[in-house]
Structures are given as structure tokens and as C-alpha cells.
Write a structure and sequence with these properties.
Layout (H helix, E strand, L loop, with lengths): L8 H6 L6 E4 L12 H6 L3 E4 L5 H10 L1
Parallel strand pairs: 1-2
């Protein structure tokens, strides 16, 4: 799982085993990334993403904490 985005994605990908998957749920360090696509598909990785909710929901959770 990676919540930071651009600053950590390549490192996160490098830790995956053959056929491993990574789940993205944030991009606090940037939205645009560059990675080795050939390495990605030769190692049969899977990339999944989810949203954490709206900005209002995030603020509500922070206020509740």
C-alpha cells in the first residue's frame, strides 16, 4: 500500500515480489510519476487504486480524531 504517491511509488514497486500488487490510496507528494513499464509487466505486477472519500469527509475524520 502506498499513500504518498510520486516520492515513494518507485521504491514501493521495487519491493514487490513477482506477481505482487500495490494499492495506491493517496498522492500527497505529487500526482505524476515515472516508472519502468517494461519491468512492471515483466514482473507481472498489479496496480490498484482506491479513493479515501471526499475532502469534507477527510476533514470530518480529522476533526473527530
Amino acid at each position: 500500500m502506498d499513500s504518498a504517491g510520486a516520492a515513494t511509488l518507485n521504491n514501493s514497486l521495487s519491493t514487490l515480489r513477482l506477481g505482487g500488487a500495490i494499492v495506491l490510496f493517496g498522492s500527497s507528494t505529487g500526482d505524476k510519476v515515472e516508472f519502468n513499464l517494461r519491468n512492471f509487466f515483466y514482473r507481472q505486477h498489479t496496480l490498484k487504486s482506491i479513493t479515501m472519500g471526499s475532502q469534507a469527509e477527510s476533514e470530518e475524520i480529522i476533526a473527530y480524531s
